[in-house]
Design brief:
It contains 8 helices and 5 strands. By secondary structure, the protein is of the alpha/beta class. The chain has one domain: Rossmann fold, CATH 3.40.50. Strand 1, helix 1 and strand 2 form a beta-alpha-beta unit. Helix 7 packs antiparallel against helix 8. The two termini are 26 Å apart.
């Protein structure tokens, strides 16, 4: 089908599907290729500071348009990670939800003036962007790789001490967030 006759879709993903580096990128790329067979796709991705520009690795004509949201630098030392996760624990915000939160203006700007037949949000970490995506889409789907509350609950069951406690808190908070966000998405 000619591209201009295909329905339109937008996909928001916490990581770029290309270059293919890791299971998350591979899964997102697979979904994107399937989607592009039937839709004109606009892609919104987050980019870590040191990652290569995803536009260079994206196959030509796979997407109509790509918008990149730049994440702030995150120190990766053990002490920096401990501090970040302690703050997240006190604030009761799961780590990856925290990492990908706060970009509502950038997502809204990427969608400004657009209308889509379908919106797909990858990962629960980005579920809150339903508020920006759903108003411009006829249907909005959340594509879950896993259920965050169950993941944290299982981690709490095998970890010890403070790590088990933190996962327990994040499991409870994630369950509350799932109860809030999941019913909003199309089925």
């Amino acid at each position: 089908m000619p591209a201009d006759l295909k329905p339109r879709a937008v996909m928001l993903a916490p990581e770029a599907p290309y270059p293919l580096a890791g299971g998350g990128a591979l899964r997102t790329a697979s979904l994107l290729h399937g989607l592009a067979r039937h839709f004109q796709v606009d892609l919104i991705v987050f980019r870590q500071p040191a990652d290569p520009d995803p536009r260079a690795a994206l196959p030509r004509r796979l997407v109509n348009r790509i918008e990149i949201i730049y994440l702030p630098e995150n120190r990766r030392t053990a002490s920096a990670r401990l501090l970040r996760n302690t703050v997240r624990l006190v604030r009761q915000v799961p780590p990856l939800v925290d990492r990908f939160s706060g970009f509502e203006r950038q997502v809204a700007a990427a969608l400004k003036g657009e209308r889509y037949d379908l919106g797909i949000i990858e990962h629960f970490w980005c579920a809150s962007y339903w508020e920006q995506i759903a108003p411009v889409c006829r249907r909005t789907i959340l594509n879950l790789h896993n259920v965050e509350s169950v993941l944290h609950e299982r981690c709490a069951g095998v970890e010890k001490g403070a790590t088990a406690f933190a996962h327990g808190v994040f499991a409870r908070v994630a369950a509350e967030m799932e109860a809030h966000w999941l019913p909003r998405f199309s089925h």
